Amino acid sequence: MAAAARMREHAPMKSARTAKDPRNQAAASLRGAAAAVAAYLAALPPPVRARMRQIRAIVRATAPGAVEHFSYRIPGFRLDGRTLVWYAAFKQHISLYPITPALLRAHHIDLSGYQTSKGTIRLPLDEPLPAPLVKRLVKARATEVRSTA
């Protein structure tokens, strides 16, 4: 019996204890986000998936420090621990948000050719992706996130 107690005393720590390490939690969160985004994209029809991947690539190129995440059941990016953008596929459009009226005013961005609602811009699937506009919106959001951090 004493031998069993000594063995437990010298046994390696359980993984549950190491899971509390913030570095392990962050790495697990990134893996979970990547898997969730991959599953989200895989479920989309091929043309929509291609458009979503274009937006994903634009965000990555425009905000290289952004980290992919998955919340509200849609993919997005965080910058400096704060939400940068979310993007979601719908039947006839892809939405990009949060794109607030204050952000548009501050950066003099005109969205008159696009359907918008509170904090959202809808990019129609039957029109070419306005890559320069998406890049400009992401840059504006990155500036906003960094200035309020």
Explain this structure to me?
It is a single chain. The protein has helices at 2-9, 15-18, 22-42, 46-62, 101-106, 131-148; strands at residues 67-71, 74-79, 82-89, 93-97, 115-117, 120-124. By secondary structure, the chain is α+β, with helices and mostly antiparallel strands. The protein has one domain (13-148): Aspartate Aminotransferase, domain 1. Strands 1-2-3-4-6-5 form a six-stranded antiparallel β-sheet. A hairpin with a 2-residue loop joins strand 1 and strand 2.
Structural topology:
Blueprint: H1 2-9, H2 15-18, H3 22-42, H4 46-62, E1 67-71, E2 74-79, E3 82-89, E4 93-97, H5 101-106, E5 115-117, E6 120-124, H6 131-148
Antiparallel strand pairs: 1-2, 2-3, 3-4, 4-6, 5-6
Helix pairs in contact: 4-6
CATH topology: Aspartate Aminotransferase, domain 1
What fraction of residues sit in β-strands? Answer: 15-25%
Distance between the termini: 57 Å
CATH architecture annotation name: Alpha-Beta Complex
Query: What is the N-to-C succession of helices and strands?
Result: HHHHEEEEHEEH
User: Structural class per helix/strand content?
Assistant: alpha+beta
Count of structural domains: 1
Short description:
With 149 residues, the chain is an alpha+beta fold. The chain contains six helices and six strands; from the N terminus they run H-H-H-H-E-E-E-E-H-E-E-H.
List the keywords.
Aspartate Aminotransferase, domain 1; 6 helices; 6 strands; 149 residues; alpha+beta; six-stranded antiparallel beta sheet
